[in-house]
Amino acid sequence: MNVFKRFYLRQKIKKDEKFLILEGLKKEKKQRLEIIVGNDYVCTLKNKKGKIYLPPQKRGIDARKLIALVADDYPEITKRYLINKKKLIN
Fold this sequence. Notes:
Elements: H1 3-31, E1 33-37, E2 41-43, E3 50-54, E4 56-57, E5 60-61, H2 64-69, H3 75-89
Parallel strand pairs: 1-3
Antiparallel strand pairs: 1-2, 4-5
Helix pairs in contact: 1-3
């Protein structure tokens, strides 16, 4: 794959991932869910209605559950994000 194409795909993936995670956090806040990040940090709420566990990864956390929260709300962006990630891997 061309170096410029790889760079472009990485930028598109980062942009879409950032958008989907931020929207996932907004939706999580509306649904009053508790977020457990990694092994240490817990974001607690007074009237929590559920939990989301974001396990640690090599370079941060696994945010797939936050992205899955908004996958139905933003299907085009989610599809583009997943297709670009698959292209970058191959």
